């Protein structure tokens, strides 16, 4: 009798344990056993069931942040062959592109180079599906570049509303797409023009003292933020440098080894990467204002750090950078996951300390000062950090 009673108690205890475990498992929507790339991707999918909802959008919008994150989903799908990642990125394309290939939320006449980057996933989608609307969307982006206003030397303006200006951001927005399109559909005939964009950045935005590049440059020198002698903005912003580093490693993919400009771009990447090591914090991260260290108000920022981790890792994997840059990328990635990552009870991965947005000029006016950069709002899991984080995790196999 005592044995039977003990058996019943044991079964009840096991049942209670099982029920408790089930309840606990119910809370975990994203498995912590997955690699960081999938943990972040599934966090975004759970929080934003439709890809166009990323960045708190309520209606489909053709936008650069979606282009960045969907690029990371493309790479994730290629790595895992998991259909849900493909469906998610295709869902974004289908929500923003009409059956006839037009893009309702896009206006070419604004000549905003940020818009080009969402065209990157169209190469993959068109190759996979042969749906003409994806090709037409690509052609629309190519048409914009064909007519994009330029500086006197041939550099793309950042936007029509920012005349005569080149920003580091714009190199990522336009150059990888431009290089890929001309390589695939134009026999590479415009690769020299792609390289010219980088050449003009190096000529006009590089600071010889630090080796860093300023966020922006105004050829007219009329903007209140521009130096009246050089035309450059006053400070170095890590995310803008991150955009530029990613632009180099991604555009290089489409320069054949025998192309005369390829070595030049690799030199730019190595120069920037070696310079960035001088400003890498002991944690592996970089400050919002790159060269100002622990000056009051400055902070270790996630998006720029993730972008550098990706550029370093891919650069090393591709042979554009020395192999030791894989270690520098690992150090940066460790800093992100150790110091700036929060894990919720549901298993969601939340990157903190992300600058939500920063620019130059506009209304209200942004002066590019130190105080401006450190006081822009922060936003957890901003897509300008989550996209590069996924890309870095894939390059590092983390």
From TrEMBL:
UniProt KW Hydrolase keyword: yes
Signal peptide residues on this chain, from the entry's feature table? 1-20
SUPFAM superfamilies the UniProt entry points to: Six-hairpin glycosidases
Please provide, alphabetically and separated by semicolons, the GO molecular function terms listed in this UniProt record.
hydrolase activity
Q: Which InterPro entries match?
A: 6-hairpin_glycosidase_sf, 6hp_glycosidase-like_sf, Glyco_hydro_88, PolySaccharide_Degr_Enz
Q: What is this protein called?
A: Glycoside hydrolase family 88 protein
What is the organism of origin for this protein?
Answer: Flavobacterium azooxidireducens
Q: Does the keyword Signal apply?
A: yes
What keywords does the record list, in alphabetical order? Answer: Hydrolase, Signal
């Amino acid at each position: 009798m005592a044995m039977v009673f003990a058996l019943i108690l044991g079964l009840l205890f096991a049942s209670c344990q099982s029920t408790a475990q089930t309840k606990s498992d119910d809370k975990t929507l994203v498995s912590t056993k997955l690699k960081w790339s999938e943990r972040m991707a599934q966090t975004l999918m759970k929080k934003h069931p439709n890809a166009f909802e990323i960045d708190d959008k309520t209606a489909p919008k053709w936008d650069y942040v979606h282009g960045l994150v969907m690029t990371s989903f493309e790479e994730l799908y290629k790595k895992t062959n998991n259909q849900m990642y493909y469906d998610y990125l295709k869902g974004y394309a289908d929500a923003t592109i009409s059956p006839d290939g037009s893009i309702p939320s896009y206006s070419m006449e604004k000549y905003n180079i940020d818009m080009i980057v969402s065209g990157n996933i169209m190469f993959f989608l068109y190759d996979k599906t042969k749906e003409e609307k994806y090709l037409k969307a690509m052609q629309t982006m190519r048409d914009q570049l064909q007519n994009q206003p330029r500086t006197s030397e041939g550099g793309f303006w950042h936007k029509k509303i920012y005349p005569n200006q080149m920003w580091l951001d714009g190199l990522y927005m336009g150059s990888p797409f431009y290089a890929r399109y001309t390589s695939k559909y134009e026999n590479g005939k415009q690769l020299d023009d792609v390289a010219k964009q980088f050449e003009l950045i190096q000529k006009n935005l590089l600071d010889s003292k630090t080796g860093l590049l300023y966020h922006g440059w105004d050829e007219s020198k009329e903007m209140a933020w521009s130096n009246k002698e050089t035309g450059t903005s006053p400070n170095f912003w890590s995310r803008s440098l991150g955009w530029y580093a990613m632009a180099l490693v991604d555009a290089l993919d489409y320069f054949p080894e025998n192309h005369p400009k390829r070595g030049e771009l690799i030199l730019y990447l190595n120069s920037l990467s070696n310079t960035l090591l001088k400003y890498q914090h002991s944690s592996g991260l970089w400050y919002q204002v790159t060269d100002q260290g622990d000056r009051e108000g400055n902070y270790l920022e996630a998006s720029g750090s993730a972008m550098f981790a990706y550029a370093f890792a891919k650069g090393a994997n591709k042979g554009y950078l020395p192999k030791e840059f894989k270690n520098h990328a690992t150090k940066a990635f460790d800093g992100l996951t150790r110091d700036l990552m929060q894990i919720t009870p549901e298993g969601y991965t939340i990157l903190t300390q992300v600058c939500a947005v920063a620019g130059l000029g506009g209304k209200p006016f942004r002066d590019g000062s130190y105080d401006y950069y450190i006081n822009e709002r922060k936003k957890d899991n901003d897509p300008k950090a989550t996209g590069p984080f996924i890309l870095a995790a894939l390059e590092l196999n983390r």
